[in-house]
Every structure is written in structure tokens, then in C-alpha cells.
């Protein structure tokens, strides 16, 4: 199962969610690899740095170009139950790296913060996914609402964010489980060289655990739909 985190807008928490998902899958005993296409990211925010510090036993790949990525993805799909890729910042459909990435992904996860700036470009993200589906019709997409802040009006009313997303992209599915803003848990993790899902109990840890469990069940449902379809065609 190849999972890609992508968005055309930067700073929407792609790398933070990708590193937590990698470590969560690893904690659950799954065989997982990280693919970092944004390794040049400054500071300690990249997938390579976060996963490298938090769970050094998880293999990390940094393909240098689209050709390397094209050869690597099918190999990793054979070798690992899950790959988690962090797409480069400024994600566009036109770069060859992104074409390859989406062609070989099963799920594309699109984090948003509850801000118009992060939600408005979802129409472009949806178009990119539609183009990718011409070559990869089974590509699934999910929006993840992160950084809900109970001190703000929208934070107290998550349905208003869901409605805003549906108004812009009626066909993009949104994960039910949303993630609360929790600077303390993320800061503690950064100081400890860990990720939030490894830390003590915190609101963000609770939310991420439920979010990833929901995602896993969506992925299992997608696989089972596919195998039913294959079985029907095989016997018809
Ligand atoms: N629920 C949360 N509560 C508080 N802080 C969070 C939460 N989720 C993520 N963050 C923090 O938000 C910041 C931005 O996230 P991140 O670097 O993952 O974004 P990005 O989409 O990868 O950005 P870039 O486009 O620069 O690659 C990070 O410092 C991260 O720790
Ligand atoms: Mg990043």
C-alpha cells in the first residue's frame, strides 16, 4: 500500500503527519518504509529527520529524480506492506516526479489546516488527482483536517470546515477523525527527537491514533473492494 502526503500549499503539516503515520504503522508491527521527496527541507522538519530520529530502524529512501522514483516504487511495493511518501513542496501535476508518485500511489492524503488559504487550493489538488486517475483509476484521496483550535469559532465548529471543503471540492472525501492543535505534544516530541504517537497521552496523540485507525480500515476496505471486483471478473 503506497501512501502519499501532498498539497499544493506548504506548511499544511504533511511531514508531521507522514512521520507520525510511519512510526504508528511500525509500532503496529507493519513493515514500512519512508520516501522523502522533500529531504532538503530546512531544520528538523523533514520526514528523513523525524523518522530517522524517532525510529531509526525504518528504512528511508530519497530518490534523486523521477527516473529513480519510477524504478524504486514498484520495488518497495514488493518489499514493504506500506510506503509513506512526503511529496515535494509546491506539489503540481506537471513535474515528472509527481506524475510518477501519483501513478504508483494507492492513497493520497491531503492535510489542511482550518484556514481558507489551505482549503481554497483543494480545487487544484482535486484536478491533479483527476489527471492522475486517468493512469491510476483506483487512486483514493482523503483530506485530513489538522490543527483544530477550540479557542476559535471554526475550531469549535468543525462542521463549518467540512462544509467549506465540500463547497470547494464536493467529491474529495474527508476523514471523520480530525486532529486538534496541540503545540505542547508536538514541541515535546521535537525536543525528545520522537514523534507524537510515541509520547505520553496527549490530545494530539489520541486524535492521531484514531485517525490512523480510521485510515487503516479505509485501506482494508479499498483492498477488499478490489479483490471482490477481481474475483467477479475472474469468474464471470
Ligand atoms: N496538531 C498539531 N498541533 C500543533 N502543531 C502541529 C500539529 N500538526 C503539525 N504541527 C506542526 O506544524 C508545523 C508544520 O508542519 P509540517 O512541517 O509537517 O508542514 P509541511 O506541510 O510538511 O510543510 P512544508 O510545506 O514546509 O514541507 C510543524 O512544526 C508541526 O510540528
Ligand atoms: Mg514538509
TrEMBL record:
Residues 3-157 form the CobQ/CobB/MinD/ParA nucleotide binding domain. Pfam families: CbiA (PF01656). SUPFAM superfamilies: P-loop containing nucleoside triphosphate hydrolases. InterPro entries: CobQ/CobB/MinD/ParA_Nub-bd_dom, DNA_Partitioning_ATPase, P-loop_NTPase. This is MinD/ParA/CobQ/CobA-like protein. It comes from Bythopirellula goksoeyrii.
Amino acid at each position: 500500500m503506497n501512501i502519499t502526503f501532498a498539497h499544493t500549499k506548504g506548511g499544511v503539516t504533511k511531514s508531521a503527519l507522514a512521520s507520525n503515520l510511519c512510526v504508528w504503522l511500525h509500532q503496529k508491527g507493519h513493515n514500512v518504509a519512508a520516501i522523502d521527496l522533500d529531504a532538503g527541507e530546512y531544520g528538523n522538519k523533514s520526514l528523513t529527520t523525524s523518522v530517522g530520529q524517532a525510529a531509526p530502524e525504518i528504512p528511508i529512501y530519497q530518490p534523486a529524480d523521477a527516473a529513480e522514483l519510477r524504478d524504486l516504487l514498484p520495488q518497495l511495493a514488493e518489499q514493504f506492506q506500506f510506503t509513506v511518501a512526503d511529496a515535494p513542496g509546491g506539489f503540481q501535476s506537471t513535474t515528472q516526479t509527481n506524475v510518477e508518485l501519483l501513478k504508483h500511489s494507492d492513497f493520497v492524503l491531503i492535510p489542511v489546516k482550518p484556514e481558507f488559504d489551505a482549503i481554497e487550493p483543494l480545487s487544484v489538488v482535486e484536478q491533479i488527482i483527476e489527471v492522475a486517475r486517468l493512469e491510476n483509476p483506483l487512486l483514493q484521496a482523503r483530506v485530513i483536517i489538522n490543527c483544530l483550535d477550540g479557542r476559535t469559532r471554526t475550531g469549535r465548529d468543525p462542521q463549518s470546515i467540512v462544509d467549506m471543503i465540500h463547497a470547494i471540492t464536493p467529491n474529495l472525501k474527508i476523514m471523520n477523525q480530525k486532529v486538534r492543535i496541540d503545540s505542547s505534544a508536538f514541541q515535546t516530541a521535537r525536543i525528545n527527537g520522537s514523534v507524537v504517537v510515541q509520547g505520553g497521552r496527549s490530545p494530539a496523540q489520541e486524535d492521531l491514533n484514531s485517525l490512523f485507525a480510521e485510515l487503516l480500515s479505509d485501506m482494508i476496505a479499498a483492498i477488499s473492494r478490489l479483490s471482490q471486483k477481481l474475483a467477479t471478473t475472474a469468474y464471470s
